[in-house]
Write a structure and sequence with these properties.
about 45% helix, Leucine Aminopeptidase, subunit E, domain 1, eight-stranded mixed beta sheet, three-stranded antiparallel beta sheet, globular
């Protein structure tokens, strides 16, 4: 294969390849040849950091290769390449069929349809279908046809997202992250069922990492490493039945912001929250639909629901069939959600104008609806209140302020190394606070010698700031530990260098750096 520039064409490069003038031999030699051609083109484009490539229907002209087999081979190679290069530069791979030959076009379309709707929900096929065939999705329906593989697994497309559901073990998942429903104290030892299984299989390092975050605010989400599990990360979140859909929506948004491509989750809410499996499944489908419709995710393209109890498999498949071929308007998706929640919140605000007529249950309902409304990612919400008296207005304002205060979070960091922070470290911490839009207060003998760091702001913002600041403190702790170790070593041994006929001693810091490898098995030291 050779590559030239596009000359007068509207492309950047042209790849020239020679296919032997061999008649179709049943695929013995021709099929490997065709696969090699497609693979080399894709690899060359990826190495050149191209974002798109167009490949003709190879062999269907003068060589008269079978059109259906050619189409299948090309799509299979594209799928394999996309699965092996999930973060590659290519995002648009086009198979170009000669426009005047309607028969060839129809055969290619049929083969593509077979690939997108048949076979087990394998991760490589699904991720590549999302990437290479996205422009062929049905525009009218948000939910595709449900494809049942067997009694315990099936899949469907929801916008750009492939939803897979099957009976299995969440601790055996190999995706970018699994979702763990936990408590606000992030105490994994208090959990049972799936959380206990995650802790047992993943190891106690997961719990130790959770402790660094303190307490989760309402609706808070954190991500830790996965310990000994096969997945890469664990997303920890405290679900509430009254805010289930809102929190789940935030989980998907969080995964997208972290550039996760594939996540797995159990049938959330059916354990400690005692929600009915059918209700949970409907909420999951609704929320994925809302997320796909509103956010149009570019990274998160696969969500896997792993069912522990096999008897729930038939329920899940039944509900998924109900949703197939539905448009956004036919679901309880985001548009309907926004209308209903806004109407309910306004109605509740009106009821709050008459405190004597508002029951405790109504107040709790209003609080849950209000929190759900605020949590959908609006940058700014303006409330205009009307009432018959100033007393009712004051009561409504007080209630709204109470709801808003509940969304606030305060975290205190009080570690020995806080006092050791220098001006550069403090500047980095202040920069983190500004970026995450949280208030950062330094308490201690003076602003330049703090003993405690206090963070205030919205729950998620505070958690993100806390994570970054803990990294800074860990760096400081490591640096101080190394310096103390070097001083201790230099106290006992002094290294010297020979120059111009005399020996000169290194300072304590350099002597300590040189001496440390002598205490270990690795006695090779490179430093400038």
């Amino acid at each position: 294969m050779i590559s030239t520039d596009g000359a007068n064409l509207n492309c950047k490069q042209v790849y020239h390849m020679c296919i032997l003038d061999t008649k179709w031999d049943g695929g013995v030699k021709c099929e490997p040849l065709m696969r090699g051609v497609v693979k080399k083109c894709l690899e060359a484009a990826d190495q050149a950091n191209m974002t798109s490539i167009a490949i003709p229907a190879i062999g269907t002209g003068g060589l008269r290769y079978p059109i259906d087999i050619t189409a299948r081979i090309m799509y299979e190679e594209i799928n394999k390449f996309s699965a092996s290069k999930p973060k590659g530069s290519l995002t648009d791979i086009r198979v170009v069929v000669y426009g005047r030959n309607a028969t060839v076009c129809k055969i290619f379309e049929d083969e593509m349809q077979k690939l997108t709707t048949s076979g087990a929900p394998k991760e490589d096929v699904v991720s590549s279908m999302n990437k290479t065939l996205r422009r062929h999705e049905t525009r009218s329906a948000l939910f595709s046809e449900f494809k049942k593989e067997n009694e315990k697994q099936g899949q469907m497309m929801i916008g750009n997202i492939c939803l897979q559901a099957y009976h299995g073990d969440i601790t055996a998942e190999t995706t970018d992250a699994i979702v763990n429903s936990t408590n606000r104290d992030l105490d994994l030892y208090r959990g049972s069922g799936i959380q206990a299984a995650i802790l047992q299989a993943g190891g106690y390092s997961i719990s130790d990492e959770c402790r660094k975050y303190g307490k989760l605010p309402r609706g808070g989400i954190i991500m830790t490493s996965a310990g000994n599990l096969l997945c890469k990360n664990i997303i920890h979140v405290a679900f509430e039945s009254s805010k289930f859909e809102k929190i789940l929506f935030d989980v998907f948004s969080f995964a997208e912001s972290k550039k996760l491509q594939r996540i797995s989750m159990p049938l959330l809410g059916t354990g400690g929250l005692k929600m009915k499996p059918k209700d949970v499944i409907r909420k999951i489908l609704d929320t994925i639909g809302s997320f796909a419709y509103k956010c149009k995710p570019q990274t998160l393209t696969q969500i896997r629901v792993v069912i522990f109890d096999s008897k729930d498999c038939s329920t899940l498949q039944e509900v998924m069939k109900e949703f197939q071929k539905k448009t956004m308007k036919e679901t309880h998706g985001f548009l309907k959600w926004a209308y209903e929640k806004t109407r309910t919140t306004i109605s509740q605000a009106v009821s709050l104008m008459a405190p004597s007529k508002t029951t405790a249950d109504q107040l709790d309902t209003g609080r849950a609806n209000f929190q759900s409304f605020l949590g959908r990612g609006f940058d700014k919400v303006t409330f205009t209140l009307y009432a018959c008296s100033n007393q009712d207005i004051k009561y409504a304002v007080k209630s709204l302020q109470q709801f808003i205060d509940e969304e606030q979070n305060v975290q205190e960091i009080e570690k020995p190394f806080v006092k050791k922070l220098n001006d550069e470290d403090l500047a980095r911490i202040r920069e983190v606070a500004i970026q995450q839009e949280v208030e950062c207060e330094l308490q201690g003998e003076s602003p330049s010698i703090p003993s405690k760091i206090i963070l205030r702001g919205l729950g998620q913002d505070v958690l993100r700031a806390l994570t970054e600041i803990n990294k800074i403190l860990d760096d400081v702790a490591t640096k101080i530990h190394n310096e103390e170790r070097q001083k201790l070593l230099a106290h006992n041994v002094s290294w010297m260098f020979y120059e111009d006929g005399t020996f000169e001693g290194y300072d304590e810091r350099v002597s300590g750096i040189i001496e440390w490898p002598m205490k270990t098995e690795n006695r090779l030291l490179n430093f400038k």
